[in-house]
Amino acid sequence: MEQINVSVIADNRMLCEKFGAVFGKRIFKAEKYNVKLDYFEHKRKVEENKGITTNRPVVRYAIVPIDITKLELLKDLDGSVEVVINKDLVGVDGKSIEVHCPLDNPILTKKVTTESLLEALNSGSKSPIFFSSSEALESEINRQNEKERGRVTALKEDLERQLSVLDQTINANSNLVSEYRRQLTIEDHKDIHVTIEAD
User: Is residue 182 assigned to a domain?
Assistant: First the structure.
């Protein structure tokens, strides 16, 4: 990409002004992470050892803020002009926080809906989706976290019931054997005579 001629600003002053209004503000991404970061390696090892694990990783949904600290106009290879937010900058996690947006499309963010959030979570890094309403994003993303939490809680309760059945079975087996051993040590003072007649 090449630097923009000053005349581009003159020709697009109103559009540039719309982008200037976001300087110093934040936009937000929604990201999905496995709670157990090494889940697939863990699952492989568990399956090799005939163990038990979940059929998929438990996931958490997080809001990733991006502070808009730098705005540049650049000409793309096709000659179109775009605004590059935070050019060459990285966040605290070491990942790029550079955002490209066509100058003629100053709608940088989407409205938060269940559909747009799911689209953002599944879009990957190829075409990230950004949101400006932190409150709406918090509400929707935490609703997704609560749904996942509910699934984990239901699994935990089911496993606790199964664990209880195993504990009861262990106790029943031990009681059965103990009672049998006790019966073998009972001495009856009556003389018992067994007569076997052969034909």
Answer: no
Give the C-alpha distances (Å, rounded to integers) separating 83 from 68, 74, 130: 12, 6, 15
Q: What is the pTM of this model?
A: 0.75
Count structural domains, the chain. 1
Q: Which domain holds residue 35?
A: 2-156
Q: Are 105 and 31 in contact (CB under 8 A)?
A: no
Q: Quick: pLDDT tens for 42-82.
A: 999 999 999 999 999 999 999 999 999 998 888 777 877 88
Token pair 């409150």 is found at 135
Q: Are 75 and 2 in contact (CB under 8 A)?
A: yes
Q: What is the DSSP letter of 190?
A: S
Give per-residue pLDDT as tens, 132-185: 899 999 999 999 999 999 999 999 999 999 999 999 999 999 999 999 999 888
